[in-house]
Amino acid sequence: MKSVLVVTLWLWTMLVPAAWAATLVLDIGGATEKTYSDFMTKLRTEAKGKDPMYVGLSMMPKPTKPPTYLLVELKVSKDMSITLSLSRNDLYVVGYSDMYKGKCRYHVFPDHDSKKPPYEQHSLCDKAKDAIRKPIGYVSSYTEIERKAKVRNRKEIGLGVNKLKTLIPKVYGSESKDYQDEAKFLLVAIQTIAEAARFPYIEKIAETAANPDDTAICLENNWSKISKEIYNQFKGNPQTPAKDVTVRTCKNLKGINQVQKYITLLSYQGTSRQQLTKRNVVSVLSICS
Known about the structure:
This protein has helices at residues 33-47, 118-121, 142-149, 161-171, 180-198, 200-207, 214-221, 223-234, 256-259; strands at 11-14, 21-27, 58-59, 69-77, 80-87, 93-100, 103-108, 132-133, 251-254, 265-266, 284-287. By secondary structure, it is of the alpha/beta class.
């Protein structure tokens, strides 16, 4: 039986001293796959750059220094939520915050922590002067997060909003020095939110509360490579015929309609001189088996 969830979504923007962030709120509570799908559509729209689409695929914007951030609040109830901070450069999750007992606590991966106030570097905790810094005790690589979660592979943990609903209460307000629950939460959150935004294939896994399979793991590990392969097919020649377009990374997919079932948001690779549309070209792509 497919998992059910109710998602209430709204969008607003706010300005902060050194980086601006838009906030999407995912209000977790009961039924429908459609509401999660609608949320992912809003997230992709907010994340993508302004450049034309590549055969129906969107691309992340050109990276900025300093980065700007996109916040996703995962709201379990009016009294419990966790907010993720995602870099607009690559949609990587750099940290999260929770408001506990009137204090905003911010948790940032050490490989993304500049030691500046949270609202200056990751837009976390807004402008709270009494924010509490709670560093994440491991870097943001999947290998390290899996190790702290005490799992051999992230395929062991199911995805989806209901899984987040179970894990968030174990992390919210926690003072535990054992990183296992936090790492499990981050594995699920990163894939259910950020990876699902890149890959509709992973979105479908999250919708049904399934575990990620080998194809999903391959996609996650090869996002930049796949994006570059797609971009290089059309760079300088948007009229490239289908018979001349081949990319080989894991699993054979042919035609843009099939490709879009697996990937929809590319990492930034550069710009094209003209728009690439379904009318111009049909893609041949090999992604992951």
